[in-house]
Amino acid sequence: MTDFTMKLGDDGIAIITWDVAGKSMNVLSVDAFSVLEGLIDEVLANDAIKGAVLTSGKETFAGGMDLNVLGSIRANAGDNPAQALFDFTMQGHRFLRKIERAGMDPKTNKGGKPIATALPGTALGIGLELPLATHRIFCADNPKAKIGLPEIMVGIFPGMGGTTRLVRKMGAMAASPFLLQGKLSDPQKAKATGIIDEVVGDPVAAARDWVLKAKDSDLVKSWDTKGYKMPGGAPYHPAGFMTFVGASAMVNGNTWGVYPAAKALLSAVYEGAQVPFDTALRIEARWFVNVLMNPSSSAMIQSLFINKEALEKGANRPDVPDQKVQKVGVLGAGMMGAGIALVSARAGIDVVLIDQNQEAADRGKAYSENFMNKGIKRKKTTSVQKDTILGKIKPTSDLNSLLDVDLIIEAVFEDPGVKAEMTKKVEAIIPNDTIFASNTSTLPITGLAKASVRPEQFIGIHFFSPVEKMALVEIIKGNETGDRAVAKALDYVRQIKKTPIVVNDERFFYANRCIIPYINEGVMMAGEGVSRPLIDHAAQLLGFPVGPIQLVDETSLDLGAKIAKATMAAMGDAYPKSIADDVTFWMVENGRLGRKAKGGFFNYDDQGKRQGYWREFEDKFPMAKDQPGLIEVQHRLIFAQVLEAVRALEAGVLEDIREGDVGAILGWGFMPWSGGPFSWLDIVGTPWAAERCDALTEIYGPRFTCPPLLRDMAKNGHSFYQRFGPQADAA
Q1: pLDDT of residue 365
Q2: According to the 3-state scheme, what is the secondary structure of 429-462?
Q3: C-alpha distances in angstroms, 640 versus 542, 562, 645?
């Protein structure tokens, strides 16, 4: 069965249906592209066909192009992959332009055949670029549908005409949120902004009716008419000039200049706006290929699309029967427990929210109520949805309410004794086959499982805060954790629509193992007298969402002090003491706990808004006269994390480097443009990385010592994905 089929009606209208077998959403492959072009050629050549409607056999329209196609073209292009990618892109432009011109006379703009699109639901990426080339877009009134061009989120930009067409249709200013931020809209909002044309009950019927009545003038796009002027003004127009100056400032302000796709997109728009449409498409194609050839874009596609999708589909799931969660018991109704209850209820799972007393449990449920009220106020949800979700959450102090749950998530105080006591109490009540999960962020799961009578059913499910916003969930296997527990955790994470990584048990697991050195290195530099703005801005110029000094204020210094003291106790003489501990303990002693205390490395107003760095810090830790260079600071921050990721792989905490890369980006915002720590090492090369380790070790000490694994890979010139990627496993 082909992805596209065509059926000609008695009225002369061809209905072309897109339906990729075995996929929940249509994606465009090279072969399908050729099939569709053949059908369009038939529509244009057959006098019995008056026009066509392009639609989908699924509830959605399309989720974009199979990005593996681009990687395959590049890999099989020999010595000139850029030319191969450009030729492929221009082939797509010529085809979409064929649809757009629809056989009309190039001089008179007459004689074309109308081609409309009927969207039953979501249309993303090429799934919107293709409709934009047709003459009218009809969409079902489906509030769950998402319409947009999210390519920028995975390191590229719309390169099949979407960039040029959207800007010419809406103007650069109006198009910028959809192109530069990947904004998605529901059908009604997409119509209001001018992306689509009609929202109707039956889009196929409406599109067919329009095609039958369409006149020559209905087919001609505004940019193909004489005297066309871009909405909002072209770059050389006074209004347009200000738009492009502002857009450039916005891009650099939001991205700190580290994402090549955003800069390339802006260049394609700016240059394309000054030339005829077909030339603009060629410019778009050149900038698109420029991005595809950048190792950053390849790394982002690999991690944020291919690897992320594989993990979400269960790439590392044990081969056991379906473990879908029906009812979950959440122990602890604080911020974490309340957030877990919320995301579970939103996924349709019944929740028992337990706390010491009814009042505390009710406060936990109120967290969901407040969240839904904000959604209603912003028109992102409805009162009916709110009532449905709140109806799923039962707040109580009665442990007997857990008699029929199939998953427990414990989110009580981060103390082994407290957790052990709760484990014993709950296991005496719950069914024998219920999986017990601890939402601990630092305590080893194997140790916590000693309180369990069923350690094979004991596992860690580590959520990141705030639960409802963070996409990553870290699943931790204890020494005795069984396959069914792992499968249960993975199936649950899939239900709540988050991305899982599975790691083996060791103190701090994977994410915190890497985050803590990042924070410590920043605090250490501050204690050494390095300018705190330099430290934070160096991180932001690498693409981190916040610098380590700001981050420690957000997470609270007393938490850092507590972790440091617990680690000292656990490691004894092996603990690597540093000036970071001196700084942290001194700040806590002086009540500078961070944002929550309205005072940390920053000053805050009564609403918790930052008011600048706390100057008195320099009375205790004076700023050094000679400041290090930006690159030196950046290398310290990068290698502090990357080397821990390598050590985690070396120690078997990580079993899959894909989880290491995806987890780093989603868990703590590790340089998304790099694709993650292992992808970054592949970009810079293991020989250079090992050499830089030696230089940093000589200056700053053994924490930068090159791990044996990295040393061996550097010696042999290996890359991580060459040695540990899925292809290596298959071989």
Answers
A1: 96
A2: CCCCCCEEEECCCCCCHHHHHHHCCCHHHEEEEE
A3: 14, 21, 9
Please give the Cα distance from 226 to 622 (Å, whole number).
67
Burial class (CB in 10 A: 0-12, 13-18, 19+), 553: buried
Q: Where do we find the tokens 């067919």?
A: 208
Residue 466 preceded by cis peptide, ω within 30: yes
* 561/582 Cα distance (integer angstroms): 10
Cα 68 to the center of its chain, rounded Å = 18
CA distance 169 to 222: 8
How many other C-beta atoms can be found within 10 angstroms of the C-beta atom of residue 275? 12
Interatomic CA distance for residues 390 and 405, integer angstroms? 18
Cα–Cα distance measured from residue 208 to residue 203, given in angstroms and rounded to the nearest whole number: 8
The pLDDT of residue 520 is 94
pLDDT tens digits for range 290-303: 999 999 888 988 89
**How much of the chain, in percent, has pLDDT values that exceed 70?**
98
Contact 669, 545 (CB under 8 A): yes
Report strand pairing: 610-613 vs 602-604.
antiparallel
> What confidence tier does 242 reach under pLDDT thresholds 50, 70, 90?
low
Residue 599 phi, psi (nearest 5): -175, 125
Q: What are 185's two structure tokens?
A: 């809209």
**DSSP state, residue 148:** E
CB 508 within 8 A of CB 518: no
- 398, 366 Cβ separation under 8 angstroms: no
3-class SS at 621?
coil
Provide the pLDDT for residue 71.
76
Q: Are strands 472-477 and 458-463 parallel, antiparallel or unpaired?
A: antiparallel
Average pLDDT over all residues of the chain:
92
**130 neighbors 54 (Cβ within 8 angstroms):** yes
List pLDDT tens digits, range 127-174: 999 999 999 999 999 988 999 999 988 889 999 999 999 999 998 888
Burial (Cβ within 10 Å: 0-12, 13-18, ≥19) of residue 151: buried
- DSSP letter, residue 654: B
Q: What does the pLDDT look like over 8-31, one tens digit per residue?
A: 999 999 999 999 988 888 888 888
Amino acid letter, 305:
F
Using a cut of 0.70, tell me whether the model's pTM lies above it.
Answer: yes
Within the chain, how many helices (H) and strands (E) appear?
A: 33, 19
What are the CA-CA distances from residue 80 to residues 75, 77, 294 (Å)? 10, 6, 14
Please report the pLDDT score of residue 648 as a whole number. 97
From CA 629, how far away is CA 634, in angstroms rounded? Answer: 9
CA angle 719, 153, 223 (to 5 degrees): 125
Alpha carbon 717 to chain centroid, angstroms: 31
Nearest to 530 by CA among 632, 616, 600: 632
Quick one: tokens of 229? 């002027």
Q: Check if the beta carbon of residue 436 is closer than 8 Å to that of residue 429.
A: no
Q: Which residues contact 430 (CB under 8 A, 6 or more apart)?
A: 329, 402, 403, 405, 408, 436
Rounded distance between C-alpha atoms, residue 93 and residue 250, angstroms: 29
The full 3-state SS of 175-215, as one line of letters, equals: HHHHHHCCCEECHHHHHHHCCCCEEECCHHHHHHHHHHHCC
